[in-house]
Amino acid sequence: MKKLKIFALLSSLFLSASVFGQNEQNIRLTVLEPVSETIDATALSALYNNLNQAVSLNEMNSYDVHNRFLMYSEVSVVDTQKSTTVPAVYIAQIEVTVYVLDNEQKIILAQETLSAKGTAAVEDKAVMKAVRSIKARDSKLKKVINIGRNKAAEILASETEYNDAPDVDDNGTPDVSWMKNFE
């Protein structure tokens, strides 16, 4: 009888842990291509890959463009300087603002700005090195993903019905034009 009680207790704990973790396991984050007016496509592609890696490391990765939860990022070159040394070296400083969004409710769940520097003999390569210096295991990146996951779990727990088909434009990509309201 005592073994039966222990078994019942352990199975109820296991069942409650699996039900509790179920919402967080079902939360998936789709990384959108980073947006920048000044950085070339190769550097943006490298950043996109690093952001996807970061989301994968947190076990939330999804490539479904119809996903409700999105990671949107904006990249800007803050400063570029040419050193006075011989040979001349360019120093580029960038900022990447990362947003975790709920595209159904049109709200920002989490946001973080990451800064990075890169140096090279050519200005474009310095910018590329700065972009590549943002690593998937960056603690700020992990923090924004976890905050977004927790807020998404709260939203899903408070809703009675989950609609996983957010707004999509004619090309099949998520419509994040509502983000311009926050700038």
Description:
The chain has 183 residues and is an alpha/beta fold. It has four helices and five strands; from the N terminus they run H-E-H-E-E-E-E-H-H. It has helices at 2-26, 41-57, 123-132, 139-158, and strands spanning 29-31, 61-62, 69-82, 90-102, 107-120. A five-stranded mixed beta sheet has the order 2-1-3-4-5. Strand 4 and strand 5 form a beta hairpin. The chain is elongated and about 60 Å long. Mean pLDDT is 81; it is low at 3-24.
What is this structure's SSE topology?
Elements: H1 2-26, E1 29-31, H2 41-57, E2 61-62, E3 69-82, E4 90-102, E5 107-120, H3 123-132, H4 139-158
Parallel strand pairs: 1-2, 1-3
Antiparallel strand pairs: 3-4, 4-5
Short note summarizing the structure:
It contains 4 helices and 5 strands. The chain has 183 residues and is α/β, with parallel strands linked by helices.
Helix content: 25-40%
The number of helical segments is 4
The biggest beta sheet is recorded as: 5 strands, mixed
How far apart the termini lie comes to 64 Å
Give the quaternary arrangement of the chains.
single chain
Instruction: Specify the structural class.
Output: alpha/beta
DSSP strand content: 25-35%
Estimated radius of gyration: 21 Å
Average per-residue pLDDT, rounded, comes to 81
Order of secondary-structure elements: HEHEEEEHH
Residue runs with pLDDT of under 50 for 5 or more positions: 3-24
Shape: elongated
Number of strands: 5
- Strand order, main sheet: write it out: 2-1-3-4-5
